Amino acid sequence: MTLSDNHLTEDGLPLESPKGRILLIACGALAREIIDLKAANGWTHLDLTCLPAKYHLYPEKITQAVTDTVTKHRSDYDDIFVVYADCGTGGLLQVACDTLGVKMIPGPHCYSFFEGNEQFASHSESEITAFYLTDFLVRQFDAFIMKPMGLDRHPELRDMYFGNYEKLVYQAQTDNPALTEKAKACAETLGLAFEHRHTGYGDLDTHLRAL
């Protein structure tokens, strides 16, 4: 399957003909990782559809979009699993999932579950000034950071947005030297120190493996 990051950002990933027993409803920013995990482990019982990754910029849209997708596909599957953490919904997504009778990944956001929620929580207070990027967000840095914040047009706004941050933490899901170099360039663009942290798939792997 050929995936375009721009397509995943704007449109998500449509569901192909139902084949498995469990449907994963995920953020488009996680599509590549989930497809890689499915292929590596032979998880043919899992089908995948993704909502547009750009909902990270508009978290108020996530809960209703997940609710609509669960309702649309519920009759076609034995179970549905929501591959989102809270992701800025202020607890509303968890309430909706509880009401719908489906489970979701625990945690505040994907940065946490990629590193492992327990590990992330153990140092979260000491990293209040850290700005996180994943593989997807490094590839889509312009679409998610530069353009929405207007930094492509007004680079002088950088310090207003990022003046209280000290470092950019690149949470790498894969070992990709080109992405690492791009992440370093992202840190330089934002005027931040750089830290490379190979997380792999973290709790994403753990939760999908249990399905």
Describe what you observe in this structure.
The protein is α/β, with parallel strands linked by helices. The two termini are 23 Å apart. Strand 3 (79-83), helix 4 (92-100) and strand 4 (103-104) form a beta-alpha-beta unit. The strands form 2 sheets. Strands 2-1-3-4 form a 4-stranded parallel sheet, with helices on both faces. The chain has a 3-stranded parallel sheet with strand order 5-6-7. It has 11 helices and 7 strands. The chain is globular.
What characteristic shape results from the CA principal axes?
globular
Sketch the topology as an H/E string, one letter per element. HEHEHEHEHHEHHHEHEH
Helix content: 40-55%
Instruction: Note the total helix count.
Output: 11
Distance between the termini: 23 Å
Strand order of the biggest β-sheet: 2-1-3-4
SSE class: alpha/beta
Count of strand segments = 7
Question: Per DSSP, what share of the residues sits in E-state strands of 2 or more residues?
Answer: 15-25%
Spans of 5+ residues with little confidence (pLDDT < 50)?
A: none
Rg, rounded, reads 17 Å
Strand count, sense and closure of the main sheet?
A: 4 strands, parallel
Mean pLDDT: 95
List the helices and strands and how they pair.
Layout (H helix, E strand, L loop, with lengths): L4 H6 L11 E6 L3 H11 L4 E6 L10 H12 L5 E5 L8 H9 L2 E2 L5 H6 L1 H7 L6 E5 H5 L1 H6 L11 H5 L4 E6 L4 H14 L2 E6 L3 H8 L2
Parallel strand pairs: 1-2, 1-3, 3-4, 5-6, 6-7
